[in-house]
Amino acid sequence: MEKRVTFSRWTIGILFAVPQLLLIFTFFYWPAGQAVYWSLTLQQPWGGGNIWVGLDNFRSILSNADYWNSISASLIFAGISTGLAMFIALVLAALTDRQLAGSRLYRVVLIWPYGIAAPALALAFRFILAPEAGFMAVVNQVWPGFWDPGLDGADAMASIIVAFSWKYVGYNFIFFLAAFQAIPRSLIEAAAMDGSGVIRRFWDIQFPLITPTIFFLLVINITESFQDSFGIVDIMTSGGPANATNLMVYKIYSDGFKGLDYSGAAAQSIILMMLIIVLTIFQFRFIERRVHYR
Amino acid sequence: MVERTPFLNFFTHVILFVGFVFCIAPFVIVAIAASHNLKDVNDVPMSLLPGSDFWVNIKTAWATADLGPKLLNSFIMATGVAAGKVIISALTAFSIVYFRYPGRTFIFWLIFVTLMLPLEVRIVPTYAVVANVLEPYQTIMDLTGLSWLIEKVSGVHVALNLGMLNSYPGLILPLIATATGTFLYRQFFLTVPDELTEAARMDGAGPLRFFIDILLPLSRNNMAALGTIMFLWAWNQYLWPLLITTDQSHATAVTELKQLIPNVGGAPEWHIAMAGTLIIMLPPLVVVVLMQRWFVRGLIATEK
Questions:
Q1: Which of A38, A99, A113 sits opposite B23 (nearest CB)?
Q2: Which among A40, A50, A64, A124 is most buried, taking Cβ atoms within 10 Å?
Q3: Do B15 and A95 form a contact (C-beta atoms < 8 A)?
């Protein structure tokens, strides 16, 4: 869509865009280019500039078992937490949209978790799920050794999934509820007049009409699970035990800033960027579909 | 709605109530744990009746994590990001929508691409840029021979250096450098009727006048929505402040959470940790509750 009426002094027009362009050049394009450069070179340990190594950084990362472990941990985390957060939010939003008594309260409260910083809720869940105090300790008293995120990788993964899903149920709820409310009431009333029940109306009318939102949230949730998980991992598990929760962004951070391996971290960043770009392109195809829907 | 479904209604109430309990439980548990003393908080199971040490714990947590200055830092950062976004995005969207100049589509795409790569995935090189913000320009001048030329002509050796580690601009600017708000404004500007622009022009208003006196007042709703979302988003940032504030004086409240984790081997001071968590999660919660309408609207509008 374009404006028909515009201003003709385009030098002023460009000036309006300059602050933004300077910012994204300095803090976006330059670093992104730098990441590519670093990923293809190796920094000399005691100065003397970078030497060109081609794809060696990528080769050494991709042949490293730790990295593949990190990728599979990230994918498991992304898959389970996205599924959990979306399913719960979908059910809650669908039921809230029935507008029974009290639904206004739910509409207000259920979005609170999304406002909380990931590290803050991570610390809260670290206490709630702590094996020796808090609430899982009760379970541990009944079955000793049942739960210990500090020693058992699966337990640690479960803890970060719970914390992340809790936050994103709130996020998904907002979008699902908005999608449900955008469906014209007359459509649902007409279906009810034709004798279809609540469940039938959900599957035949509401669900098909919110599929664009489902696809959209699917992509956002997966992308966010790569980024927003950093604070949760850092506070709850620090990537442990035995790298079981060493997700991709956390590994970039620990390799780059703790291990001071800039080239390796840059190469990992490039791989992650590509992953996210592929996901975004995916999303664009669905956005196009959404436009056709209406 | 139109039919009687007592069983389904009962089922709906049960599920929603369970969801409500799970949603609210962490807040309640944190608040209760923050009111216990060291012994009670480590009881198994922990008593769900509030203890009496709430204010003592809050004070201890406040002192341990040095929360006064840290909350102020968080506030400055979040306000800076929100204000920067609201202003810069408006300027850019105005330029993209209301002018026709060569390269406009190119600029549009240049900005659009920034949506794809969040700060988290390019932290390492961004950190290097912030260590010396003028490095990109220095490198370009070196490569184009410009700095050589300047040195020949004026005898001045060009070494641009502006470090932003441990500073508010360093915290704020990289967080503004994405396109989130620009598209929110763009969508809105496109719905502003052309007749309004024509009328303004007929009355002799230039682009600047039109922007300040007509377009900005019309966008107040957008500004509130974008500002709310950006404030929360910036307040909740963790990785970026953690990296660039090596000096404690510029650390933010959220990065201080790490100081509150009870260390292994030490006393499990969960009551202090939870008191600190409560203080840190409260400001964004207040914003969400008070600005709920703008929050929901901003979230849906910026992401779509």
A1: A113
A2: A124
A3: yes
**In chain A, where the domains are located:** 1-54, 64-293
Q: Which tokens belong to B145?
A: 């021979």
Contact residues, chain A, for B3 at CB < 8 Å = 192, 197-198
Does the CA dihedral A81-A85-A87-A88 come out positive or negative? positive
ipTM reported for the complex, 2 dp: 0.83
Distances from the Cα of B15 to the Cα of A106, A136, A211, A223, B273, angstroms: 11, 23, 23, 29, 32
Q: Does pLDDT of A261 surpass 50?
A: yes
Q: Nearest to residue B78, comparing CAs of B228, B242, B286?
A: B228
What was the pLDDT predicted at B81?
93
Q: How many CB pairs under 8 A join A and B?
A: 317
> How far away is chain A from the Cα of B154, in angstroms, using its nearest Cα?
27
Three-class SS of residue A52? strand
Number of domains chain B contains: 1
The domain spanning residue B245 has which CATH number?
1.10.3720.10
Contacts of A208 by beta carbon, 8 Å cutoff, 6+ apart = none
Check residue A243 and give its pLDDT.
Answer: 83
> B38 in contact with A at a CB cutoff of 8 Å?
no
CA-CA distance, A125 to A118, in Å (whole number)? 10
Collapsed DSSP state (helix, strand, coil) of residue B19: helix
Running DSSP on this structure, what letter comes out for residue B120? G
A16 inside 8 A of chain B by CB: yes
Q: Is residue B13 part of a domain?
A: no
Contacts of B5 in chain A (CB under 8 A): 197-198
Closest CA to B279 of B242, B249, B247, B254: B254
The residue of chain A nearest to residue B95, with distances taken between CA atoms, is: A13
> What range does the domain containing B135 cover?
65-252+282-303
A192 touches chain B (CB under 8 A): yes
Helix axes B270-290, B67-98, angle to 10 degrees: 30
Is residue B47, in this structure, part of any structural domain at all? no
First to last CA, chain B: 30
According to the model, what pLDDT value does residue A85 have?
Answer: 94
Residues of B in contact with A253 (CB under 8 A): 123, 239, 243
CATH topology for the A64-293 domain: MetI-like fold (1.10.3720)
What residue of B is the nearest CA neighbor of A278? B116
Q: Do B129 and A34 touch (CB under 8 A)?
A: yes
Cβ pair A74, A248 in contact under 8 A:
yes
Contact B20 A95 (CB under 8 A): no
Q: Is residue B226 part of a domain?
A: yes
Instruction: Show Cβ contacts of residue B281 under 8 Å, excluding neighbours closer than 6 positions.
Output: A116, A117, A120, A121, A124, B27, B30
In a domain, B201, yes or no: yes
